Amino acid sequence: MRIYGVVGYKNAGKTGLVERLVTEITGRGFSVSTIKHAHHQFDLDRPGKDSFRHREAGAREVLLATGRRWVLMHEMRDEPEPTLDELLSRLAPVDLVLIEGYKRDQHPKVEAHRAETGNPLIAHEEQTVRAVASDVPLPGLQVPVFDLDDTAAVADFILTQVGLV
Question: Fewer CB near the last or first residue (10 Å), C or N of the chain?
Fold first, then answer.
């Protein structure tokens, strides 16, 4: 499976860029899946729901299924967080997996950057950042810089990088 990451600091536009890239790339006929790394504890479930009650009772995994989608929730309990490779191995084959987060992992990435956040560029310290999508020009950067809103250009770059075009 081909993978490409989107990284950046909070409020840099990562999620919006991933969302637009999924729309753009699937619109070109490619299949796409995503992985999103969350740094905080989250729960898709709600207290009182049957699946929540199953997990609270001690179930290691709970699979919810409907006629439209299914989701598998795996309780970590005392297990370490799975690696990106372990998570990738659980996905069904697709043309491209876009990964939001995991900025220190070794896959190629594009960095989303908004000047107003005041954060430094990850591209200066992380060699796996192959391009930056920014809301301001970034002259002198050693990697290509795209307009953050030019989704087609960023998609072209990623698809070329992974060998899909």
Answer: C
